């Protein structure tokens, strides 16, 4: 439809306006559709490329032409590789290829996602290499987020000393013109707190707080760390320390304490904090009420969960996907799957997007009810929407399908993810290979394992030994040798995953 700006526009002008609007609208839709297809195609080609048997650069030169190379295109391809858990070196090679293209100017989004993929797979040397390149090419892209990406993964996989050394290295060599302050200090603390390393976080705080004056955000990060550690006594002790030090409490402070009580099933204490927020005029947010709805679910108090959900409207707060998920989870915990299904329909009516937690929660409720038909129906709806579930949801579905004599659906899920350029978690492969081999479908089990290896991902010792037994029984020594050789090549370049394959 066309909005008429002036009633004096003549008929001919209106016709031109309508035709022009339709032409540009259809052109735009066509352009967006084309771009989306190109992104999916390139991401799939990169993910499916036999690695490390063949180099990636020649393939990129053939397929990534100047006509499609743009900042948004690169961001979308790397975003797709990130979501698909692609091998980090492939993503890095793609980003490097784009960096060397004269018409491409890197963005923080593309850089940070590439760095995240590398750090997630423990390619720290490559991560440092990438940061150094960006410092030389476009230092403005080195931000607090890139600092956080590296420090959080180093804190997860390496030692306390390594993390402090990385912080100093960034300050002295990668951000030489920038004076580190409280914001950078907060990121260092968050790196330890997110891993529940509270002894280390407290040590860093005591060591550096005189150099980096803490603010309310600093204290909230530490408070959150104690909450994530599950120590409610430590949460309250540190909260009182915050008050004693004179820090101004905010809605985040209250939300952390409320969540700590909710996770322990102490809904009454959490609700008292909500009343306290109202008394001190600290306005609750959607996140605050959402946390309480979750707490009501944990306490199996479904009437309170519904009351809190309705309170969002009374407070003029608009419920988002998170709030709906909290109520959905509460209904599922109370085994009211029927009401949960009605709530999902309401989300559709109100154009509230489903996220992975929405699907995961509903799948969990249907599985716990042993509703095979319901699981299959929701799975088909999810696939129809081209939604890509996260690893834990994939593992849960794969296990359910294989345990309920529907290994065909397990294989269907595997193929769906592969066709989308997504590389499933190795535990999904273990479940699927077990299901296929136990039914004599060894060829399909071999093909799935080979797909995983070709994408540059580890195969577990369990899968290898299972295939070894099955292939030897069938006299398929050649296929076994092929798997073994590909795996050994991968072990030479991939970070260790804690498993070493035996001899073929």
UniProtKB/TrEMBL annotation:
PPR repeats lie at residues 215-249, 250-284, 285-319, 320-354, 355-389, 425-459. InterPro entries: PPR_rpt (IPR002885), TPR-like_helical_dom_sf (IPR011990). GO terms for biological process: chloroplast-nucleus signaling pathway; mitochondria-nucleus signaling pathway. The keyword Repeat applies. It comes from the Eukaryota. GO terms for cellular component: chloroplast. Signal peptide: none annotated. The keyword Lyase does not apply. Keywords: Repeat. Belongs to the PPR family. P subfamily. This is Pentatricopeptide repeat-containing protein. It comes from Solanum bulbocastanum.
């Amino acid at each position: 439809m066309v909005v008429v700006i002036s009633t004096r526009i003549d008929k001919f002008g209106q016709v031109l306006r309508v035709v022009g609007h339709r032409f540009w609208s259809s052109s735009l839709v066509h352009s967006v559709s084309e771009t989306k297809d190109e992104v999916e195609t390139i991401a799939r080609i990169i993910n499916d490329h036999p690695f490390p048997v063949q180099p990636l650069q020649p393939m990129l030169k053939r397929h990534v032409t100047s006509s499609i190379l743009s900042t948004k295109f690169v961001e979308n391809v790397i975003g797709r590789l990130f979501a698909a858990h692609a091998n980090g070196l492939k993503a890095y090679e793609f980003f490097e290829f784009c960096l060397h293209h004269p018409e491409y100017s890197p963005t923080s989004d593309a850089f940070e996602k590439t760095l995240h993929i590398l750090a997630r797979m423990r390619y720290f040397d490559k991560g440092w290499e990438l940061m150094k390149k960006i410092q030389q090419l476009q230092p403005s892209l080195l931000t607090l987020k890139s600092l956080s990406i590296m420090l959080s993964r180093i804190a997860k996989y390496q030692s306390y000393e390594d993390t402090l050394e990385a912080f100093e290295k960034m300050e002295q060599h990668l951000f030489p013109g920038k004076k580190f302050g409280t914001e950078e200090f907060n990121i260092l603390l968050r790196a330890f707190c997110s891993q529940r390393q509270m002894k280390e976080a407290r040590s860093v705080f005591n060591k550096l707080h005189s150099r980096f004056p803490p603010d309310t955000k600093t204290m909230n990060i530490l408070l959150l760390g104690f909450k994530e550690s599950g120590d409610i006594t430590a949460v309250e002790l540190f909260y009182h320390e915050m008050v004693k030090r004179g820090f101004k409490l905010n809605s985040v402070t209250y939300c952390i304490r409320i969540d700590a009580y909710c996770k322990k099933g102490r809904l009454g204490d959490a609700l008292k904090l909500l009343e306290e927020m109202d008394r001190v005029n600290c306005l609750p947010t959607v996140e605050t009420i959402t946390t309480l709805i979750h707490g009501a679910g944990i306490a199996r108090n479904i009437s309170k969960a519904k009351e809190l959900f309705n309170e969002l409207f009374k407070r003029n707060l608009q419920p988002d996907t998170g709030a709906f998920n909290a109520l959905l989870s509460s209904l599922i915990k109370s085994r009211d799957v029927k009401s949960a299904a009605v709530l999902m329909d309401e989300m559709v009516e109100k154009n509230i997007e489903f996220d992975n937690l929405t699907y995961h929660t509903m799948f969990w409720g249907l599985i716990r009810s042993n509703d095979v038909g319901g699981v299959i129906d929701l799975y088909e709806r999810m696939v129809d929407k081209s939604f890509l579930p996260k690893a834990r949801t994939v593992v849960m579905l794969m296990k359910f399908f294989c345990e309920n004599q529907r290994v065909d659906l397990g294989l269907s899920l595997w193929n769906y993810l592969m066709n989308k350029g997504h590389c499933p978690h190795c535990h999904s492969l273990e479940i699927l290979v077990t299901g296929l081999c136990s039914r004599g479908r060894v060829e399909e089990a071999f093909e799935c394992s080979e797909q995983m290896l070709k994408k540059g991902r580890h195969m577990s010792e369990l899968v290898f030994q299972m295939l070894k037994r099955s292939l030897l029984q069938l006299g398929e020594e050649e296929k076994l040798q092929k798997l073994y050789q590909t795996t050994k090549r991968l072990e030479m370049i991939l970070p260790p995953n804690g498993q070493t394959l035996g001899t073929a």
